[in-house]
Structures are given as structure tokens and as C-alpha cells.
Design a protein that fits this description.
It is built from eleven helices and 13 strands. The chain has 348 residues and is of the alpha/beta class.
């Protein structure tokens, strides 16, 4: 068996008493207009479209030059220059980010974002701050990381460094788009070490392409059993880890199932292996009939160990998986309803 459900294994360790939470987003569907939904769909569709255009941009540039579409080639070159130039976000970026944050959640059936532990991210990097530097590990990846996108443009997360796949962050369209919308960075190891040493909070979907491949509308799955690298980095830098689970992400896009071995092998080569369909009439945007609940778990406080052993990493990685499973068990009924009582989280 390639996967297991560890919820039952940790059942006796999962606290059943209510935890203090802070809700930063709670959408009232009765206050959402058709125009709100349409604009929200445009924002989310733009996120997906820019992602796809970025992957194709080198080929588009080559074709533009080859067939003498110089205006198109100049446009791509200009976007590339702007995406790598040094500039600070200003009024235009802030306006776009705030509208993206406001309208995107209104496209969905319902949306709530809650923080456990009564603790919101701290915008300060002051070493004297009582709040430990934090790593936000976001699951599940889903087809296009919609829950991740909602957090990326949210006001309370604007100081957090959201780390994207290096190949994606290197592409001009997505790099420029993400710099306008939030605080992006590269998930390349040396870049992440640099952010950590500078005292930044970091967000990453550690399940990567594999978790996207495993996305299934009828089963909650995460790909984390062998993903220990981020735990090692957090131990070396003394960072707390907050598991984040996006309930409903699995149902925003249909994804083809099966052929796991072949598809996961493609993922290991850095290639996506999904075939998805979202809205019935606009397949590149998510379904708008799915309620979303984003739960940012209470911090898992890690010690600082300059040179952690394999046992150190394994111990804390197991505690991380237990925390992730606990979040799923405690919040599944509020997210999915009474039918969720028998649901289990698959850990691959």
C-alpha cells in the first residue's frame, strides 16, 4: 500500500476540547451579488491563466521572433524586464491586492479563514518579538492552489514570504503577477535558507506536484510522508511550523485518477501530471459551488538544532503529521457537515 490514513493511529492523541480561534474571513453569501461573483471569477481565472502562460512563455517568445510578430516579442521582453527589475510595491499593487482579496472569496459558495491558537501572523521581524519565526505548510496543493492563492493575497499574510516552485517563479508573467499581488519568493533551497536567516516567515505547499497529481474530488489526500526537508530547515533555524489545511480544495477541480506510479515519476522529474476541469462552462476557473474553509493550525514549536540527526527530523516530522491529522479530525465536520464523521485523511 502506497498510502495510509494516520488519523486513526493518532486518535488517542488528538485533543477533543475546543481551541481558541480567530476568524479573519467569514463570507456571508446573502451579501454577495452576481457582479461580485463575476469579478471574483475573473481574479481567480487570471491566477490560473497567468500560471499557464508562464509555463508557455519561452515558447511563445521563440515563436513570436521566428514568425516576426515583433510586437508580441517586445511585449514578452518588457514583461520579463519588469518582472526582474528592482521596484517596491506601491499604490497600484496595493489596490490590486486588496481587490483580489475582496472579490476572490466572493466567487466561492462560502469561504472562511480561521487561525487556531488565538495567534495571527506578526508583521514585525524584530528578534525581540515574542512570536517565533513561522513556517506555514499549506495542504492540499489541489490542481491550482486556490486556497494558497486566497492566503497569498490576504491582508494578514502580506509580510509572509510565499515560496513558489523555482521554475514557475523564474517565468516572467507569473513572477510579475505574484510580485504585484503579494510577497513571493523561490522554493529553491538556498533561497529559502536566505529568507529564514533574514528572519522572514515563510509559506510553502510541501506536497508539491505530487499532491496536485493525487487530488481527488471524493477523498482528502496529502503527499507528505517523505517530505522531511522543510522540517530539517525549520529545526536548523528554530522556526515554528503551522500546518494549514484547505477544506474543499479537493473539489474545486475534477482531476483524472489512476496511473499513480507513472504520474508520480513524472512529478519527480519536475513535470506536472494532472488533467483537470473546473467550472462546467469555464474549465480553467474553479467551481463556484464549493464551500471553502481554510484552517491555519496552532504553531508546532520546534527547538533550534544546528545539526539535527535523522532521528530528530523523523521525530518532529511525525509530530507535524500528527498535528495535520488533528486539524483534519477537529475541523472536518464544521467544513463538510455531519457526513464527514467517517472521513479520513489519506497520508501518502
Amino acid at each position: 500500500n502506497q498510502h495510509c490514513s494516520i488519523a486513526g493511529h493518532y486518535q488517542g492523541k488528538i485533543a477533543q476540547m475546543p481551541r481558541k480561534t480567530i476568524t479573519v474571513t467569514e463570507l456571508d453569501p446573502s451579501e454577495v451579488t452576481f457582479i461580485d461573483k463575476a469579478i471574483g471569477g475573473i481574479f481567480l481565472g487570471l491566477f490560473v491563466l497567468v500560471w499557464l502562460l508562464s509555463i508557455a512563455s519561452p515558447f511563445l517568445f521563440a515563436l513570436a521572433v521566428l514568425y516576426k510578430y515583433y510586437a508580441s516579442a517586445t511585449f514578452i521582453a518588457t514583461v520579463t524586464f519588469a518582472s526582474y527589475a528592482k521596484w517596491e510595491r506601491g499604490a497600484i499593487s496595493k489596490f490590486y491586492q486588496q481587490n483580489c482579496n475582496y472579490y476572490s472569496v466572493r466567487y466561492l459558495k462560502t469561504c472562511s479563514i480561521v487561525f487556531e491558537g488565538g495567534q495571527l501572523p506578526s508583521p514585525t521581524k524584530d528578534p525581540a518579538s515574542a512570536q517565533q519565526q513561522t513556517f506555514y505548510a499549506i495542504h492540499p496543493h489541489g490542481a491550482f492552489c486556490i486556497g494558497w492563492a486566497l492566503l497569498f493575497c490576504h491582508d494578514v499574510m502580506q509580510h509572509v514570504r510565499f515560496c513558489f516552485a523555482p521554475t514557475l517563479y523564474a517565468t516572467p508573467f507569473f513572477r510579475l503577477f505574484s510580485r504585484v499581488t503579494g510577497n513571493p519568493g523561490s522554493a529553491e533551497k538556498q533561497s529559502m535558507i536566505k529568507y529564514m536567516k533574514e528572519g522572514e516567515d515563510i509559506a510553502l505547499p510541501p506536497g508539491g506536484f505530487e499532491e496536485a497529481t493525487l487530488s481527488c474530488m471524493t477523498q482528502d489526500r496529502v503527499f507528505i510522508k517523505k517530505r522531511t526537508g522543510f522540517i530539517k530547515l525549520c529545526l536548523q533555524n528554530g522556526m515554528a511550523v503551522r500546518p494549514v489545511y484547505v477544506f474543499g480544495e479537493k473539489s474545486l477541480f475534477w482531476n483524472i485518477q489512476g496511473c499513480w506510479k507513472t504520474r508520480l515519476n513524472l512529478n519527480r522529474q519536475g513535470l506536472p501530471a494532472i488533467l483537470t476541469w473546473g467550472h462546467p462552462f469555464f474549465p480553467l476557473i474553479p467551481k463556484n459551488t464549493i464551500p471553502i474553509r481554510v484552517v491555519v493550525g496552532a504553531p508546532l514549536v520546534l527547538p533550534k538544532i544546528a545539526d539535527p540527526t535523522k532521528d530528530d527530523v523523523t521525530t518532529w516530522h511525525n509530530k507535524y503529521m500528527a498535528s495535520l491529522s488533528r486539524i483534519f479530525e477537529e475541523h472536518k465536520e464544521s467544513a463538510y457537515g455531519d457526513n464527514a464523521k467517517t472521513m479520513k485523511l489519506e497520508i501518502w
